Amino acid sequence: VEASIPEPQREAWQRNQVANFANKDGFEREVVRHVETTLARSMFNCDEVAAYSATSLAFRDRLITDWNKTQQRQTFRDTKRVYYLSLEFLMGRALDNAMLNVGLKDVAKDGLNELGFRIEDVIKQEHDAALGNGGLGRLAACFLDSLASLNYPAWGYGLRYRYGIFKQEIIDGYQVEVPDYWLDFNPWEFPRHDVNVDIQFFGHVNKTTNADGKTVSVWEGGEIVQAVAYDVPIPGYDTPTTNNLRLWSSKASGGEFDFQKFNNGDYESSVADQQRAETISAVLYPNDNLERGKELRLKQQYFWVAASLYDIVRRFKKSKRAWREFPEQVAIQLNDTHPTLAIVELQRILIDVEGLEWDAAWDIVTNTFGYTNHTVLPEALEKWPVGLVQHLLPRHLQIIYDINLYFLQKIEKAFPNDRDMLRRVSIIEESQIKMVRMAFLAIVGSHKVNGVAELHSDLIKTTIFKDFVQIYGPDKFTNVTNGITPRRWLHQANPRLSELIASKCGGLEFLKDLTLLNKLEQHIGDKEFRREWAEIKYANKVRLAKHIKDATGVTVNPASLFDIQVKRIHEYKRQQLNIFGVIHRYLTLKAMKPEERKKQLPRVSIFGGKAAPGYWMAKQIIHLINAVGAVVNKDEDIGDLLKVIFLEDYNVSKAEIICPASDISEHISTAGTEASGTSNMKFVLNGGLIIGTCDGANIEITREIGENNIFLFGNLAEDVEDLRHAHTYGSHTIDSDLDKVFDEIEKGTFGTPHDFGAMIGAVRNHGDYYLVSDDFHSYMETHQLVDESYRNQDEWIAKCITSVARMGFFTSDRCINEYGEEIWNVEPLPVERN
Ligand code: 8GP
Question: Is the distance from CB of 678 to CB of 789 less than 8 angstroms?
Fold first, then answer.
């Protein structure tokens, strides 16, 4: 039922419009009001947490009035909307970002100061919203920032996990996982108890004949779980556009309890039902680049997809347009294969509920969806057992079979002599346990498929999706190289550098048009500018050094070269290569005479990242890093020349401290394995150089900033297959320096050698799948070059400035415009600030 106010009474509403605060006094009034009324506290009982809460509420109120207007404007103009479906949104903290995006951080700073608080301390009270694992989830968050900043009519849809990614503790050098209960107080979400959808699971399908004599399928029985919407406002930078991120939370359908059971005295089982329903959105699966076919995960996927599609279809139906106009009004982007069931669900709604013919419906479906692939790693490609899908979603399995049947019929016609093709591309894998191949379903049900960096997009076309390029032609496949939002990753994380850049690039405009950074190149010769640049880097290193001291107790010298690798721990990302290199450096230093040692460049090797709780080898890598740190950091021969740090619980807010403080950062995946990487972009944008392989976006970064400004090493993607083959079938000799490193570990220098046997064995005896030994020499040589290069600080700084000046391409704004033009066919809806 529509509930709008009749025309004659609207004047009273307009007269009483909520006024947004715009200055210090207004801000202070709002804070005090929230402390007193919303939080029911007073100035005699107001700590930093309360100050944070009240400040957030003051800003949330502001955002929500903009949010309302944005939604009204978009509905009124009835333009095409984008829906970004992602099982992960790694948002980090919201307050600082909101203050900067609406341009009132200074106001808040002064206001908080007058009220007795330091803004930095207040910001720190916020718990990260950590609803993601790593790159894929953070990309979704950067995209939301860009969509709003560029005024696109866009919504994100995700799950409101009660527990985000676990908190990592390091105990005796080992990772220990602790649950992250983050919802205690979250001022950034609006529960919408009136926006809820019943989601069906299990049951069976009946065929009946409808009034027109047509056979229709009816999905009956099973159980119902309710999806409740929680909305999170997403403010654009320097624009009133405030978009919506809608997160679904699960609860038992029909209220708190099953009253029937309750009345029958079966209290316990009625509570159990409720808990079972709530389990669906309880926890984020902590795997990055790995799929483990758990039933609850599939339940999560369908729950979220069905609720989102119900919502999208409901909104479309309000416009009273014909169904064929659906793809002109709606673009849905699938962030990896996790939301692939949306394709099946939309087809189901159109044929079973709305009564469209199959072909007409399928046309609508395929024109609506786009699919982004984020990995070529086989262990990460989603497949679900047919039996499980049948059990959980019986009607959907039928539709999947039909989609596959029509698809294979076309293939048979087009490739009559290629029987094996049918087997290869079938959505159903005919293995011992039959599987639904989600990536293939996503390709068949979408009009565009994209990879996330040039090399990656080429690789998917020549490897995992090769047959589909033959089938559909190359135009269905495209590339959108990833990007990052410069608002959070420069302006917020590194305010002093942002300010210095602004002073040379004509103000803060560069945050909206990152190509303006190129103006920096004119100033490279300016000595004073270079001095300020270096000074800011040093200050950021001091800030990180302080964090290291607080977190680990180890003192590091900020004048050392800071060498950083932070990302999820994974064998393909090769933190093991890094730590083996560190050991080699340590052994080299130890072997030197004291006079020679004194000439060496001091270095701090910093690691951070979580291992999936079930990924044993990744956990061993963390253990080795800590074991090496424990020995090296207290070795008096070495002192400041080498420190090895593992920073616990790497997350978005820590990344904001870490990225601005690097001299060199490591992006050293085996060539062809890292789809893009995005921390490489964050580090360079913050004036650090990188050492890396020719992989993912490193290649495009090199093209943009110039090969003199990056330290590349290692084998190329095109050689990987042959090398692996040679390891297995030829003789496999290990690099001699690496062998010495292994010997040292086996001597027990870093604790019980047995603990690291598997890591060494993987290289020595099990084919060295990730090419650690093949790349070791080149890696160490390149680190030598880094050291030499760093000694010439003047040149080093010039390289850093040149690199930043040429990073304009890597803004997520560019990505969103590319998606908008080439995949979604949507346009921004610009607004004037009132
Ligand atoms: C990641 C890629 O590993 C990373 O290179 C890229 O920058 C990021 O996505 C954003 O595009 N991929 C995944 O996290 C991933 O594929 N995860 C699950 C789907 C398996």
Answer: no
